[in-house]
Records
---
Amino acid sequence: MNLNLVKKIADAVLYEGYLLYPYRPSAIKNRRRFNFGVVHPRDYGLAHDELFCMQTECLATGNRRMALDARVRFLHMTAREGWQEAVEREVDAPDLNVADLLASPRQVNFAFPLKQEEKGAGERPEQETISGSIDINAHQLAEQVFKITVRILNLTPLAEAPSVSRDEALTRSMVSTHAILAARGGEFVSLLDPAEPWREMAGSCSNIGTYPVLVGAEGERDAMLSSPIILYDYPQIAPESAGDLFDGTEIDEMLTLRILTLTDEEKREMRARDERARRILERTESLPAEQLMKLHGAARCLRQVEDGAR
């Protein structure tokens, strides 16, 4: 597995929608977050009909000695004055033997406790507690074909959930939640384009709030990214991109040019309110001319046209 390539794709998923142009917390589009992959506390989810459990199901081929590694990643929102900044969280479930999973599911419990800043008595803590579990099991569907199920649950207690606001719930939610699965001694099956022997079994996989795709170098089948964003197998970061902009629905060149035209006051807010926004601004302002030209366009997958072809 190409770990560097997988991490680049996973990081792009992790921060998609985190902060949108004009990258100022005071901008209207950033006052109400639109994040992918939000797994709310169960109490809030039940009260407001929101997702509190994310489920990944995929197929893996191999024998019972096949080993799996699972990693769940998400953002833990931190309350700032007028803004919610993110802290990256990871929970690992390594060395999962398929034979053991067939006999008994594996559960990994986790908790990221309340973080109290040094403030005056009675002030609200900066970061709320998040706790949950990852449940992993396997079922054999055919000779050397296994269905792997990973459930991510947010079990954070939330008193008076029906009256809690969305912003309050986000500080106890898992945001941009996704899972990375790796196989040793086996391979994953594409759910987008499964080979005929596995097509019906692939269709039986039930995914909730996520879309598993093969990830890594083209043709490799030892890693799968279960993303809250719809992707194709083997997603890639465009080589022309100078860095994260958190908004995959926009064009890098357009966002770059827009950032360069922000007022001095807008740039001061970018620098002051969010560390990732500051890095975007500094990187954009220091881009050399040749890098800007690379953003203008690229031609790929060209083919020769035969005489008379249309």
Note: Residues 3-14 form the longest helix (12 residues).
---
Amino acid sequence: GYVYAPEFAGRKNIFGGHAWCQAWIGGQWIGLDATRAPDGYSAVHITLLAGSGNPEDFFDMVNTLNSFQITEIKQE
């Protein structure tokens, strides 16, 4: 998927390709992302594909990366 970063590699306010995991806890799937500590998984994660960890899952996701656009919507 994508994850928002306020700053990465000298660029500000970007979404970058990213992967995280989920665990079945207490009867629901919980997103876990150690790279986003201390917040972990949150609304800044955009899921494009869920897989089982097989390499084919990754290649299926790569094919979708350039086929959509993120648009900011402001509520007035």
Note: The two ends are 29 Å apart (CA to CA).
---
Amino acid sequence: MSLNQILLIGNAGRDAELRHTPNGAAVANFSMAVSRRYQVRDEVREQTEWFNVSAWERSAEFVADRVKRGTRVFVDGRLSTREYTAGSGETRTSLDVNANRVIVLTPRETNGESHENGYPQRREETQAAPAHSNGASTNGHHAAEYAAAASADVQHAAPYDDPNDLENLPW
């Protein structure tokens, strides 16, 4: 048995961009920065890793609507790497995440009013499966199967006020 899963909490580096494949499948892409602070003697240092995130179908539409530059997000997905040659001729590695689940941690403000957890509606919107052009996800299941499972597995998390408080996150 194998497992390729990555869980990330960080900030979007750019607004999510929505596009459609030739077969009509929606896909949203955004970059995400995940930082950690640590101390070396008396100096506080920060290290940031960048990830390219892709969300598919219903998740793509949700992400395109809600993920803007600076938005704090939780991403659960599958990690892959690819090498490419930069314009300078230097070989670089890209960290890509195919998202199974995206949860926006930054509260959404509507008419000056913030909704609990940033979600004015049901939470299963973020549970949609990553379906590809043939309707099947990467593990062979169809998007409809994921949607049915997601509806049955809606998260009912306790409200949290501070997205930086890791004790009260919704999972």
Note: Residues 111-161 have pLDDT under 50 and may be disordered.
